[in-house]
Amino acid sequence: MIRYTERMKTDVDDTKTTEITSFDDLDLSSVMRRALRDAGFEEPTPIQSSLIPAALEGEDVIGQARTGTGKTAAFGIPILEQLDPLEECRDPQAIIIVPTRELADQVGREIVMLSKGVPTEVAVLAGGKDIKRQLRVLENGVQIVVGTPGRLHDHLQRRSLRTDKVWCVVLDEADRMLDIGFRPQIERILRRCSKDRQTLLLSATLPPTVRKLAESYMHHPLVVDCCDKDI
Ligand code: ADP
Ligand code: MG
Questions:
Q1: Which residue range or ranges hold the Helicase ATP-binding domain (predicted)?
Q2: H or E segment at 2?
Q3: Does the ipTM surpass 0.95?
C-alpha cells in the first residue's frame, strides 16, 4: 500500500491511500499500455504507482525516491497522456528541467520511448550543444521540452522558448540542481509559466532549500516518499 504521507501545507484529512500494483490499475490509454509493454515495463515502481494517479488528477506532487526507481516514467506517463496533439498546439506544453546535459539526453530518450505509437515532438535543449539547431527545432513546433536550467533560460531570453501553453513543469533532481546553483534560472523559468500550471518536483533528498522552492512555487503539493522502497 502506498500512502500519501504528507502535504506540505497539511490538512490531514487529505491523506489518501491507494493500492496500485499493475499498470492496468491506472487509467492509461491503450497506446500507452502498449508502449509500456514494448519497453518491458511489467509493473509500476512504487514512485510510479503513487505519482501517476495524482499527476493525472492535476495535483502538484513532490516525489522523493532513490536513483534508478523510475522517476522519469513517473512524470513522463501523465504528461504524455494529457498532451494536446501537435496539430492543435505547436508550442511547448511541458518543460522538464534537469541538472545536466547527460540527464537531458537520457530523459529525452525515455520520453520518446514512452511516446511510441503517437507522433510526439520532444526537444532536448541542453547547454554546450549547438543553439542554432535548437532554435530550428523550436521553430518547427514541439510539445515537450527537456533542458538544463541555463540553456532553457537562454531560450526564454531569446524568446525562442514560448511558455504560454505550458501546463506542466517538472523539476527533476531538484536537490542536485540547487546544489549546482541553478536556483535563479529555475525561478525565472517558473515565473514565466502560468500560475495555473502543474508542477512536479522529483528529488532524492528534500533539504530545506528544496522545500523552500516548493513552498514558493508549488500549489499544495502532495509529498510522496518512496525512499524506503526499492523497485
Ligand atoms: P530515476 O530517475 O529514478 O533514477 P529512471 O527513470 O532513469 O530512474 O529509470 C531507471 C531505469 O528503469 C530506466 O532504464 C527505465 O527505463 C527503467 N524503468 C522505469 N520504470 C520501469 C518499470 N516500471 N519497469 C521496468 N523498468 C523501468
Ligand atoms: Mg531521474
A1: 52-224
A2: strand 2-3
A3: yes
